[in-house]
Every structure is written in structure tokens, then in C-alpha cells.
Design goal:
heterodimer, A: about 230 residues, alpha/beta, Rossmann fold, four-stranded antiparallel beta sheet, 6 helices, B: about 450 residues, alpha+beta, twelve-stranded mixed beta sheet, two-stranded antiparallel ribbon
Chain lengths: ~230, ~450
């Protein structure tokens, strides 16, 4: 892994659903995009413009039609199967609009689940998970997540996303289901937590007001591959 | 507390507690049924073998050796055709034997069969096949018969009750009872010729036997002379209603009849098998006036006859086991719809597709394994309940034992079946599209 490589680099990445006709427009079309180590970027765009699909492509959860995605200097599509899953589990953290916590599990177990599938030594899991939950303000880590408030669930989701000290955290509309006050608090937490673990942050939102929180903001429409003359 | 794949499996099972428990119960019932059937089949055979005891041959005048064994040992019916006493004396004088015990059946007491015999029945014949009458009693584990109360009969018109016979009739030592001619059935209850009470000759209960776990527990034992006297008296009374009471002195050769002979031939030291058996059996079979049965062989052939029923029962139990596998598959299959999001989240966190597949198959196997062990427990308790019921209702002692190989085979089969049942739901989980299942609901 190249230590000087950007946290994320995308090159001519294109995606359309396999069932689509061949000349239909690309759902995702990104010419070149980079995210420096620890950098925080807001990716804006109207609903349905492919922001979430781009995040799934970066995470290696869906296959592109072409192009490459490098996370911490490694092309995620050059590794396959279980190796890619392990790479994702270790180097990429994800935060979702509806948190996608594991129901039936405690806050602690949700964070431990992220560590379980990583390359981090099991001995370190427990202490690390507790420390992270403490850092995000969860004082009852043994409680089942559905018994926590929405704000607390958001905190658990953030702790889980950074549990493996990933190179990049992908946040997909993390505040879309929160009221403005909670949204502010949630973004404060996400940004500060990523900063504290040294993870880059790529956050999608269709809310242009969010741009004030980031030093760099990109519109997904502006990332498209330039049309050749 | 570290998180592991087991935590995920256990949470999955406990989050669908009702479904998990009912599926485990289904497997347990299937395994329990299979193990109980296997155990009862072996134990039942042993119980029947116990009834034949340590005799080598049973001689009668019944229509076939099997009927002879069913009537002469298991008291199915009263043997219809007698053997004259002279034939008995002539037969037993032609070859060496450890015992030749005459038996006479045909009477009953409150529906319980009466076995008239000699005192050797209690001193030499044993319902335990391993009892060797040639060895001193005290050197063997347990005497052939043990008395729960009183003593064995010594004189005419004394009876000894089998343990079950005493329990069913409620008779105690010292009671005076009247025996009946024939076995009272629906068919003959209104026919005095076939069924009537020998009211002129009361018997005294002198002893009650301990339970032996054999068919003899339901029998009432008395001596041959008593039986001959009461039947001779009936003959004399028919010929001359004014004739006085009959005594042993009034017996003619025609009155002295038996219905069976329990025969044990000389054996080698430490063996229950007689080298003379083939020769003596062949010699006796040459006599067309008698039927010669080798009880252990007859029981074996009886079990061969019923083995097809046995196999049908085992096939049914196997079908129930397969159904339990299908139940596991359906329970997991139905849960997949609710678990798609959880699977997608696990995939995002780095869980590989093969590991997801393994988690579901392991969960299925665990349900099968818990069900299998619960089934073993069920069979253990169930077979003991059946054994107690058999002992109380039929006096048949069944000692339910589980053949380790068969038990391990059934447990392994249920584990394999459960694992196989998990394959379809596991494939569904394996193919779960991640991106689609992470989208916000609604």
C-alpha cells in the first residue's frame, strides 16, 4: 500500500445497471476524482443522480462497466471475492441515512461486528470498540440498539464506521432523516470523529446548505467524463 | 465480550425464538421417534427372548412350532391337543437331559392362564436364558425364581401366582381361589362346556413370585395332580352324577395328560448351547405325534415375520425426520426476507459471501443438533415411560437400551439433514444484493 497515495482516487468510472439497454445514459460517470488523506469533501447532487451508487462502487459492492477506484493506493476492483470484502472491511467505513445498525445486537456488538471482519487482531477488539463508543458519547454500550434514541443510534453508526481506522469514510445522506438541530450535531460528530482517526470523508447530500461545513464541495454532475471533441 | 460468528448465529436464532423453538421441537420429535423405535425394537426382542428362558426345546402337540411357542410360553391360547403321560415318560427316557418339565395348560383364574407343572419348573427352568440349572444356585447371579411372599407349591390344590397375576387378581397368600375350565372369552362365555368354574376344588394361594420380566408373570402355577384330579372328577361326574369326590387314587392313565414339555439338554461347562441339540431335535421331529419347537429360533422367525412392519415404521420415522429437515429449511427460508438487510450490512462490514453462506448453514446445523440431542432426551424418557407402561399393563419387562452405533447414526443423520436443509436459505443469503437492501425503506 502506497503511504503517499490519496485516500481515494477514481479514474473514468462508469456504471449502468446490467439490465439497462447499451446506449442508455450512465448512472455513474466520473472522469477523475481524488480525495487526499484525511480530506473531507461534500458530494452534492439532486436525488437520483447516482450519488449512493457511486459510494457502492467505491466500496466495491457493485461492479463498474469500466474505470478504477483506488482506496489507499489499492485498486479495489483488482481484488476479488473474500479479499475485496476484507479490504473493504478494513479500509472503508460507511454511514447510512437510516444507520443500518444490526438489530438484536447491542451498541458494543455493532461496533465489534465491524472489527470482526477486519484484519485487526481480535485481542484489541473489545477495548477499541468501548473506547470509540465512549468517544462518541455512548454511556450504555450494552444496550440493544433499538432501545437507543435516534441520536444515539447515529453515534453508534459513526463509531462503527471508524472502528477499523479506515482510509476513507463514505457517508450516504447521513442527516437526511434528522431534524436540523440533530443534523448539525450529527455532522459535527462525523467530521470530528473522522478527523480524530485520520480518515478521509466523502459525504453525499442533496442539501446545498451543507456545503458551508466543508472546505471542498463537488457536484456529481461536474465529475462526469469530459465529452471528446 | 468478544464478538464472533457464534454471536451472530445465536442472535439470529434468539431473535426468531418462536420459530427456532418450534423447529427444534419438530426435529426432537422426529429423532425421538426414530430412537424410541430402534430402542424398542431391540428391547422388545430381548423381552421375548427372556420368556423362552433356558430351555432348548418345547415339545407339544400343537399345529406348528410357532403356535407351540406362542401357546406354551406366551400363553396366547390354551393348547388344544394333549400329550399322554405315557408318551412323556417314553420320550424322556430316550435321551439324556438336564430337565424335562411337563406342563398342562387350559384352565384360568379371572382370565389369567393357569400353568400346571412339576416343582422342577421353579428349581430348574428359569426365564433367564443364561441360568444354568447344572450349577449351584448360590454361584449364579440370582436364583431362577424369587418369591415375593410365601413358598412354592408342595401339595395338590396349592397355587403360586406370578407377580403380575397377583397384582391383577388382587389375591394374596392364604386366599382360597377357584379356577375355571378354559379361558373365558366373548365367544365361549355362555358355553358351560368351554368355560365353567371348578367350584368343587378350591385352591389355596401359597406363594407370590417376584417379577421376572417374562410372560410367566401373568400365570398362575399349580401342580399337575390337582389339574388331573379336577378333570377326572368332571369325567366321573358326567358318567355317574352320584360319584364321590375324586382323589389321586381315582386317576386313570387317560386322565394323566399334559400339553407341553420344557426340555433342556446337557450343556458344556460355561455354555448355554447343547451339542446334543441337533441330534435330539431331529430324532424327536421324526415322531409325527408331537411338535418340536426350538423357542429361540421360533422367536427369531416371528421377528422376521414382523420385521416388514418394523421396516414400515422405520420408513415412517425416516419420513418424519426428512419432514423435520424441510421444517428447518422453511423456517430459515421464511426468515431470509427479514434478514436481507442484516446480511447486506454484514457484507458492507466486510463479511464475505462464503462466510455468510457458512453462517446460515451452521445455524441450520445447530438447530438440527439441538433438536437431535433434545430428541435423544425425549427418546430416553419416552422409552422409559413405555417400558413402565409395558411392565404394568403386560408384565413384560423391557429394558430400553440405545445401541451406541445406531444412536450416533441417527444423531449424525439429523445433523447432515439439517445442514443440507440450510443450503437453500444459505444460497439466498449468498446471493443477497447488497446495494438494493441497504436503501432506506419507504
Amino acid at each position: 500500500m502506497n503511504e503517499h497515495a490519496p485516500a481515494l482516487h477514481i479514474d473514468t468510472l462508469r456504471f449502468r445497471y446490467p439490465s439497462s439497454v447499451t446506449d442508455s445514459p450512465w448512472v455513474v460517470d466520473v472522469g477523475s476524482f481524488s480525495l487526499g488523506v484525511g480530506e473531507q469533501v461534500l458530494l452534492t447532487g439532486a436525488s437520483g443522480r447516482g450519488k449512493s451508487t457511486l459510494l457502492y462502487l467505491i466500496a466495491g459492492l457493485i461492479e463498474p462497466a469500466g474505470g478504477s477506484v483506488s482506496v489507499a493506493g489499492r485498486d479495489i476492483f483488482s481484488v476479488r471475492g473474500s479479499q475485496r470484502d476484507l479490504f473493504r472491511g478494513t479500509k472503508i467505513g460507511m454511514i447510512f441515512q437510516t444507520f443500518n445498525l444490526l438489530h438484536g445486537f447491542s451498541a458494543l456488538e455493532n461496533v465489534l461486528a465491524a472489527l470482526l471482519f477486519s484484519s485487526i487482531r481480535p485481542k484489541e477488539h473489545d477495548a477499541r470498540a468501548k473506547e470509540l463508543l465512549d468517544a462518541v458519547g455512548i454511556d450504555s454500550p450494552g444496550r440493544e440498539v433499538t432501545q437507543l434514541s435516534i441520536g444515539q443510534q447515529q453515534r453508534v453508526a459513526v463509531a462503527r464506521a471508524v472502528a477499523t481506522s479506515p482510509a476513507v469514510v463514505l457517508a450516504d445522506e447521513p442527516t437526511a432523516s434528522l431534524d436540523p438541530e440533530n443534523a448539525e450535531a450529527a455532522m459535527d460528530l462525523i467530521q470530528s470523529t473522522c478527523r480524530s482517526v485520520g480518515a478521509a470523508l466523502l459525504c453525499t447530500s442533496h442539501d446545498p446548505a451543507m456545503a458551508t461545513r466543508f472546505t471542498r464541495s463537488e457536484s456529481i454532475d461536474d465529475l462526469a467524463t469530459p465529452v471528446r471533441a | 465480550m468478544a464478538m464472533s460468528d457464534w454471536t451472530i448465529i445465536c442472535r439470529s436464532m434468539t431473535s426468531r425464538r418462536f420459530s427456532t423453538v418450534t423447529t427444534i421441537i419438530t426435529v426432537a420429535v422426529a429423532v425421538g421417534l426414530m430412537l424410541t423405535l430402534l430402542s424398542m425394537r431391540d428391547s422388545g426382542r430381548k423381552a421375548f427372548e427372556r420368556g423362552t428362558g433356558n430351555m432348548h426345546l418345547l415339545i407339544s402337540n400343537d399345529s406348528s412350532p410357532l403356535v407351540s411357542v406362542l401357546n406354551g410360553i406366551f400363553y396366547a391360547n390354551a393348547p388344544a391337543r394333549p400329550i399322554p403321560w405315557s408318551t412323556f415318560n417314553q420320550l424322556v427316557s430316550t435321551f439324556p437331559h438336564e430337565y424335562a418339565i411337563p406342563t398342562q395348560q387350559g384352565d384360568s383364574y379371572l382370565g389369567l392362564p393357569v400353568m400346571a407343572t412339576s416343582t422342577e419348573f421353579f428349581s430348574k427352568f428359569s426365564p433367564d436364558a443364561n441360568y444354568d440349572p447344572s450349577k449351584p444356585k448360590e454361584k449364579q447371579a440370582g436364583s431362577p425364581w424369587r418369591l415375593a411372599a410365601g413358598r412354592f407349591f408342595e401339595r395338590p390344590f396349592e397355587v403360586v401366582l406370578g407377580a403380575k397375576a397377583a397384582e391383577e387378581s388382587g389375591a394374596e397368600v392364604g386366599d382360597v381361589i377357584e379356577l375355571s375350565h378354559g379361558m373365558k372369552t366373548r365367544r365361549n362365555q355362555d358355553s358351560p362346556a368351554e368355560h365353567h368354574t371348578h367350584s368343587d376344588f378350591p385352591y389355596t394361594v401359597v406363594g407370590i413370585l417376584e417379577l421376572t420380566g417374562s410372560s410367566h408373570d401373568r400365570a398362575v402355577f399349580t401342580d399337575l395332580n390337582s389339574t388331573w384330579i379336577i378333570h377326572a372328577h368332571e369325567r366321573r361326574h358326567r358318567d355317574d352324577p352320584t360319584s364321590p369326590s375324586t382323589t389321586q387314587a381315582d386317576l386313570t392313565d387317560a386322565d394323566r395328560k399334559i400339553t407341553g414339555i420344557y426340555l433342556r439338554l446337557p450343556t458344556r461347562e460355561g455354555s448355554n448351547i447343547s451339542p446334543l441339540l441337533p441330534t435330539v431335535a431331529a430324532k424327536l421331529r421324526a415322531d409325527p405325534s408331537i411338535t418340536v419347537a426350538q423357542p429361540t429360533k421360533e422367536i427369531k422367525s416371528l421377528f422376521e415375520i414382523v420385521s416388514s412392519i418394523d421396516q414400515i415404521l422405520l420408513a415412517m420415522a425416516s419420513a418424519v425426520m426428512v419432514s423435520s429437515g424441510i421444517a428447518i429449511m422453511l423456517a430459515l427460508y421464511n426468515s431470509m426476507e427479514q434478514r436481507r438487510r442484516q446480511i447486506a450490512v454484514l457484507r458492507v462490514l466486510g463479511c464475505s459471501k462464503p462466510r455468510i453462506f457458512g453462517l446460515i448453514v451452521t445455524e441450520s446445523a445447530i438447530i438440527g443438533l439441538i433438536g437431535a440431542f433434545a430428541g435423544f432426551g425425549l427418546a430416553f424418557v419416552g422409552s422409559r415411560v413405555v417400558a413402565v407402561a409395558m411392565k404394568h399393563r403386560l408384565g413384560l419387562v423391557i429394558d430400553p437400551t440405545f445401541d451406541p452405533k445406531a444412536t450416533a447414526g441417527v444423531l449424525l443423520a439429523s445433523l447432515v439433514l439439517a445442514s443440507a436443509a440450510g443450503v437453500v436459505p444459505a444460497l439466498m443469503a449468498y446471493r443477497t444484493p447488497v446495494a438494493k437492501n441497504l436503501r432506506p425503506i419507504g
